[in-house]
Specification:
Two copies of one chain form a homodimer. By secondary structure, the first copy, chain A, is of the alpha/beta class. Chain A has two domains: 4-17 and 264-375, Alpha-Beta Complex (Aspartate Aminotransferase, domain 1), CATH 3.90.1150.10; 21-260, Type I PLP-dependent aspartate aminotransferase-like (Major domain) (Aspartate Aminotransferase, domain 2, 3-Layer(aba) Sandwich), CATH 3.40.640.10. Chain A has twelve helices and 13 strands. The first copy, chain A, has helices at 21-26, 37-54, 69-78, 92-103, 121-130, 152-161, 210-218, 228-236, 246-262, 264-284, 311-322, 348-375; strands at residues 10-11, 59-64, 84-89, 107-112, 136-140, 142-143, 148-149, 165-169, 188-192, 203-208, 300-304, 324-325, 337-341. Chain A has a seven-stranded mixed sheet with strand order 2-10-9-8-5-3-4, sandwiched between helices. Chain A has a two-stranded parallel ribbon with strand order 1-12. In chain A, α2 (37-54) packs across α9, α5 runs parallel beside α6 and α9 packs across α10. The first copy, chain A, is globular. Chains A and B meet through α3, α4 and α9 of A and α3, α4 and α10 of B.
């Protein structure tokens, strides 16, 4: 899908993801008055379609910011300093979410799982029972750093059964994987524009359900820029409290059309196919998945780096020799895995091209290794 | 300057301002890895040129956000809850800055002036003497809502003589009006990309001097996304703590080149000429400036609406009949003035065209009024 603008790179990071031509083109539009009817119609229409993609009758609101800001928006609007919360951590982004909670002086209880594993409802339930007073549970829907998709509907049910708020990092799932905010009982969902939304980074997208609005009424954090109530009051008039990031709105508008023209369920099916094809290809190459395959993500695949090689050797050779961009690992596992993004503007040919490049690079690197071993 | 992309509108809002073709074109670039050397070089180069435009050897840092976020960044990084601060208010944006300070539970002392007037060093000095304990003074360099430029160097001196921090809203001055951060002793300067920077909205630009860094060490606000220290640590490596808004970086990069290719002092001179030409034209039309002419801004001119007319009548007719977009007033003076932006990508022909349209509209509306009066 990479024929636009002379770009030949097969850009397979797990975000930012490549921009479709229609999204790039949309950003060629000049400025419009940010308090006029043009903006009002645009923003109203964007929010309507974003609600559809969140499968919610609640609110969706946008900020000019990065996905990580969504964590802060959750904390300062739904909680108060000292509130006990449970942070479930299955990878680097869950860990960062916990760090934000600590920075804002919540009383953080952590449930850490080995990276590559999913959180199961049983484990969550027993942890919840030991921490009955937590006011919110932070869940990662899709952990970008390990290629794991948590069983979110089941986890959300466990949390709600105990009365806590369900706060979900959906940065690398929203618009790519099924995410039924109302049906699954998610109270607060955050994501960023640069993943399956197929937009440049710079927009934080937040879904807010009725229980989150109740919590907002009780929250005592001082806040201004992230204030949910102000954002909603303005959104009802088709406006944002401060100047909106117009080009990113233009881009998001175009991307929403692409998603809904394809059909949201078709988008989910395409991601399922791409995930399945990637995993099959990885195994055909004799490689192992880093993640527990039962919970493997359909937006990003983490591949265990074969013994004797580093992630950097593989990613650099793929870029240098094949113009294919994939990522290494994160945190303490930066050299232990490579991660292939297959979300957003991505089709089977992109995945095939990526697998071919990987196959070729492994042969080269393996050959080099043998030569070096032989010499030694 | 409005021939790009088939746009014929003379877009003369005081922000967002029109995008030069080079800036629009820059946003056609595809995504790059946000943790790679390409981003490192781009961000390092952007910050170097942004420091040049701030005339500072201190730091300049960027966030994906709107200009208003700069107020919050100042508060949560330089102060602590309950700190006494002096908010000087000469218009709507000064008022909003004070509201942010109140939202964050600073102890706010206000110095309000009638809208249209500038703050003079004498008035500031006597207020400072009555409030010797304030830790920071919030100053508006250029008040977008009234077309007034405060005498910032003199005001900053008064504040520093008393030892308080000089925090400056330069949203509609930075990159358009002289702003000598180090020479004038400004500790913290905030602006937004969508004014004289000639970029789309979505970037917050912040200048931080040594006394601001000292204050940062003492600040006790909880913070994550706005943390100055994290932003600086990453900037030293050419990175941002969270995913950077790549297309806005591309745009900013192109705009910085335009500014520095023209020459910063030439940019200031052009704005001075445009301001002077606008004010002369307004007076030639028999209209009055809203603002005290001794402190009239060279980026935005506020024009008093003639008796018997409203701002809306004029702005709507200018758009409908001449495709010229200007703004009405803000806050309680929304119908009392129209505001003409002449900052960023703007030349003499744009100002002439705007004045001609205004002249024509006034004749039409005046004629209508006479007919209506005659009928009555």
């Amino acid at each position: 899908m990479q024929e636009n603008c002379g770009v030949t790179t097969n850009f397979r990071l797990p975000g930012p993801t490549p921009l479709p031509p229609a999204v790039l083109q949309a950003m060629q539009r000049e400025m419009i008055p940010h308090r006029g009817s043009g903006l009002n119609e645009l923003y109203t229409s964007i929010l309507k379609r974003a609600r559809e993609i969140h499968r919610t009758d609640g609110d969706v609101l946008l900020w000019p910011a990065s996905g990580s800001a969504g964590w802060e928006i959750a904390v300062v609007n739904l909680l108060s300093p000292g509130d006990p919360v449970l942070c479930t951590v299955i990878g680097d982004f869950g860990d960062r979410f916990a760090k934000v909670a600590e920075a804002f002086r919540l009383e953080v209880r952590r449930l850490d799982l080995p990276w590559g594993q999913a959180l199961t409802p049983d484990k969550l339930k027993s942890q919840m029972e030991r921490n009955p007073e937590v006011k919110a549970v932070f869940l990662t829907h899709n952990e970008t750093s390990t290629g794991v998709t948590n069983p979110l509907p089941d986890l959300a049910k466990v949390v709600r059964d105990q009365g806590a708020l369900v706060v979900v990092d959906a940065v690398s799932s929203a618009a790519g994987l099924p995410l039924l905010m109302d049906e699954w009982g998610l109270d607060f969902v955050l994501s960023g524009s640069q993943k399956a939304w197929m937009c440049p980074p710079g927009l934080t997208i937040v879904g807010v359900g009725p229980r989150a609005w109740d919590a907002y009424q009780r929250s005592t954090y001082p806040r201004f820029f992230w204030d949910l109530g102000a954002a909603k009051d303005y959104a009802l008039k088709g406006m944002t409290p401060t100047t909106p990031p117009l080009t990113l709105f233009y881009a998001f508008d175009a991307a929403l059309d692409l998603i809904l023209d394809e059909g949201l369920e078709n988008v989910w099916r395409r991601h399922a196919r791409l995930g399945e094809r990637t995993r099959r290809g990885i195994k055909e190459l004799g490689l192992s998945l880093f993640e527990d395959e039962a919970f493997a993500s359909n937006t990003v695949t983490a591949v265990a780096v074969p013994e004797g090689l580093t992630a950097k050797q593989i990613t650099q050779a793929m870029k240098r020799d094949h113009d294919v961009v994939v990522a290494g690992g994160q945190g303490h596992l930066s050299e232990a895995m490579i991660r292939i993004g297959h979300m957003g503007w991505c089709d089977e040919a992109d995945v095939e091209g990526c697998l071919e490049a990987l196959s070729s690079v492994l042969a080269e690197l393996g050959a080099e290794r043998r030569v070096v071993s032989g010499v030694a």
